[in-house]
Design goal:
Blueprint lengths: L1 H8 L19 H6 L20 H19 L1 H7 L6 H4 L5 H8 L15 H4 L9 H12 L7 H30 L7 H6 L1 H6 L5 H16 L3 H12 L9 H11 L2 H25 L1 H13 L7 H9 L6 H22 L6 H15 L8 H11 L3 H25 L10 H27 L31 H11 L21
Helix pairs in contact: 3-9, 6-9, 9-12, 12-13, 12-20, 13-15, 14-15, 14-18, 14-19, 15-16, 17-22, 18-19, 19-20, 19-22, 21-22
């Protein structure tokens, strides 16, 4: 019976009506087949917005449910493994920084982040909190909500639970922003909500704060509010460094479209909001404020990077890895800039945002498991294809398990159990290949715009704000693409069998 239903539904995939919200079950074979588990593809009434169960509300509910499952997955550590100092937190793959840093960074002792020096006996040598200011504020607020007194283990449990509740709000904000960024594609946010890597890594660290702020910034940009977008992007950068990278794609896209006023507003808003958060701490606790940046520079080759594979295989500590990584990022950004200017059609903002953050991730000296959160919403907005997204997520889950089993192996003494170095290197390679695969299909969509699923309904750049539908001011598309574009716009521009004359550079219209 199931196969008959599949056969009757999958051929019904069609180009969506521009007047209707996109139904993923009509555009994506994996989504259509997966919907059979829940009664088949969505009907029209599921997207009309006339019922309380709108797409956004359903996506939020799913995200909260998956987040709760991720909390349940941490239960073995919550009960004992975080506090026994044993490798069981790695064996159960439920490690989290949150309870450890509650005591290790002075929150349990009521020390003020950045201002108070942390005693070496509790910090292991870290004199100040090594996180950006807004993340430090988030951590401090959670400590205020954690009752004093009682056993330290119990206080750590409450601190983790408080943080988990605050991060759950960030996850809800994240999926709402993704659902609303592409107005006609709210169901794409279901990919974010169902991402297994989000459930597994959401409560390892505090990255979801920056991820939610970045998603809100992209939503504001899509609604043609560049100043608000810049303010949110500056706040996101005050919580984590990577959101700053999104200004690069905006710069190149605004260059091609000639939208300098919008970019200036976004840049100004980002700078002002970042300074508003950082200046007070920078002025009053300079040494503590600088710790995040000095630690990032001084940190050696660490877990998850291809630099670690090279170091372990060659025995070279690669002390200059930071310089090498910066050179690779610079070269990669130059290539993305060239791709943007040479593409036959101006790339979408989400596509370039994903590529530049993925470039930073694969070339960085370290890849912590929770860094996948940076890429999940960008990947969904850049390439909302279930097959590609699930392939990449499978690779990330394999890496998530690989790092914990490797730490279990290295920390188990003579009684070795877990994953040896060679196995962990394979897990790193799987993570890198999965990310590079997703980058490759995004680049293909840029070079062959008709393959881009977001543009199949005639859209230009739903997340592009002022860039959406704007004509090019500067572009250098290859000659063959210029001929194709000219023939599509004016079928009589050339005789049959003879390609029309190419347009002048910069004359393409997105």
């Amino acid at each position: 019976m199931t196969s008959a239903r599949l056969d009757s539904r999958t051929p019904a995939l069609r180009t969506p009506d521009p007047q209707e919200p996109v139904r993923p079950t009509e555009q994506d074979e994996v989504a259509a087949r997966g919907s059979e588990l829940f009664g088949g593809p969505l009907g029209r009434r599921a997207l009309t917005g006339r019922h309380w169960w709108s797409p956004v509300r359903i996506v939020v509910l799913v995200a909260v449910g998956m987040f709760a499952l991720g909390m349940v997955q941490k239960l073995p550590c919550y009960e004992s493994s975080w506090f026994r100092g044993a490798t069981s937190q790695y064996v159960h793959a439920c490690y989290s920084d949150i309870p450890h840093l509650y005591t290790g960074r002075g929150f349990a002792q009521d020390l003020t982040p950045y201002f108070d020096r942390i005693p070496q006996e509790i910090s292991g040598g870290m004199e100040y909190l090594e996180y950006p200011v807004l993340t430090g504020v988030f951590m401090e607020v959670a400590s205020w909500l954690t009752p004093d007194g009682g056993e330290m283990m119990h206080r750590q449990q409450i601190y983790w639970t408080v943080n988990a509740g605050m991060l759950m709000i960030c996850a809800a904000v994240l999926v709402v922003c993704v659902a609303r960024t592409h107005r006609r594609r709210p169901w794409d946010a279901l990919l974010v909500a169902l991402a297994p890597a989000l459930a597994l890594t959401a409560t390892i660290n505090w990255d979801l704060l920056a991820v939610a702020l970045t998603a809100a910034a992209m939503l504001m940009w899509s609604r043609e509010r560049p100043l608000a977008s810049g303010v949110l992007l500056g706040l996101a950068t005050a919580a984590k460094f990577y959101p700053f990278l999104l200004l690069g794609p905006l710069l190149v896209l605004c260059l091609r479209a000639g939208r300098w006023k919008a970019f200036g507003a976004a840049l100004g808003g980002a700078v002002l909001s970042w300074l508003a958060v950082n200046l007070p701490v920078m002025a009053l606790a300079t040494e503590g404020w600088w710790k995040f940046y000095s630690f990032s520079q001084e940190r050696g080759v660490d877990f998850g990077s291809f630099w670690l594979i090279l170091s372990q295989r060659t025995g070279d500590p690669l002390e200059n890895a930071n310089t090498y990584a910066m050179v690779l990022v610079a070269l990669g950004c130059a290539a993305i800039c060239l791709l943007t200017l040479r593409a036959p059609r101006r790339p979408r903002f989400a596509q370039l945002a994903f590529l530049v953050v993925a470039l930073f991730v694969v070339t960085n000296k370290v890849y912590s498991p929770q860094y996948v959160l940076w890429l999940i919403p960008l990947a969904v907005l850049a390439r909302p294809r279930w097959r590609d997204f699930l392939v990449w997520q499978a690779c990330e889950v394999m890496y998530y398990l690989g790092i914990w089993y490797y730490l279990a192996y290295t920390g188990s003494g003579d009684d070795r159990h877990g994953l040896p170095a060679e196995g962990y290197q394979l897990a790193i390679a799987v993570h890198l290949l999965g990310t590079l695969y997703l980058c490759a299909v995004v680049v293909r969509d840029i070079l062959v715009p008709e393959r881009d699923v977001v543009r199949q309904d005639g859209s230009d750049d739903p997340s592009g704000g002022v860039l959406d539908g704007a004509p090019d001011a500067v572009a250098f598309p290859p000659r063959r693409y210029a001929r194709v574009a000219a023939s599509e716009e004016d079928p009589e521009s050339g005789a049959e069998g003879t390609p029309p004359e190419p347009r002048a550079p910069g004359a393409e219209v997105s």
